[in-house]
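Quick one:
INPUT:
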């Protein structure tokens, strides 16, 4: 399916992935190879790769330790018939990681997990994508390659390294602006909106367990350019 004026499959898939906070994880049972599906909370790495925090006591974790192949479906969670909403199925492998940045990014989005993230039986997993299948409404069904779903970060080392400082600055000094972004530019209800993620393609805003993706008007690779883009969007929000 080709991109049209009102539909970009890559953008639609990335939005679902970045805004998702839970999904259906499918793994394979040892010996029988039967499919097993469970509900999990999710977050994303800097490039958008799905992140999980799961326990070895859970069946899905035991399955992954035996066979890392899995799929993860994230849906739009909109009101009405769920089959009329968008969803993306991500195919790949999930592997345990001790990366501190994975822990930071996951807990920024799943704050309630802080109480058990240090338990001996829990560990973080990062999913390596092999492909994706997007269903974004009637007739809008398309298969995507990993590079079409993930965000390129190799050319933006300053942005990736400076994310923690960027988030701290936004949440300590510009919470009112975060609320403007959410309510005026994204049409969300007013609330305690704050910034939980920043990458070359956009901001991740969150209120409670609701997340919204605010795309940048242009790709941003350095903090200096980011300041100008954020200022420009803030002026646009105030004007709205």
């Amino acid at each position: 399916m080709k991109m049209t004026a009102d539909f970009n499959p890559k953008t639609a898939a990335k939005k679902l992935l970045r805004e998702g906070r839970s999904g259906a994880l499918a793994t394979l049972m040892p010996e029988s190879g039967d499919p097993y599906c469970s509900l999990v909370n999710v977050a994303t790495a800097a490039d958008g790769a799905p992140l999980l925090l799961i326990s070895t006591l859970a069946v899905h974790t035991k399955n992954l330790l035996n066979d890392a192949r899995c799929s993860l479906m994230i849906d739009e969670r909109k009101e009405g018939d769920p089959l009329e909403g968008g969803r993306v199925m991500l195919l790949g492998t999930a592997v345990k990681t001790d990366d501190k940045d994975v822990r930071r990014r996951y807990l920024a989005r799943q704050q309630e997990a802080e109480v058990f993230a240090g338990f001996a039986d829990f560990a973080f997993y990062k999913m390596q994508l092999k492909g994706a299948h997007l269903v974004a409404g009637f007739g809008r069904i398309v298969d995507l390659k990993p590079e079409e779903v993930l965000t390129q970060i190799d050319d933006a080392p300053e942005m990736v390294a400076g994310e923690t400082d960027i988030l701290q600055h936004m949440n300590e000094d510009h919470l009112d602006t975060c609320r403007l972004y959410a309510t005026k530019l994204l049409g969300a209800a007013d609330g305690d909106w704050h910034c939980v993620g920043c990458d070359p393609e956009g901001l991740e805003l969150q209120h409670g367990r609701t997340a919204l993706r605010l795309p940048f008007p242009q790709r941003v690779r350095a903090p200096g350019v980011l300041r100008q883009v954020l200022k420009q969007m803030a002026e646009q929000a105030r004007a709205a």
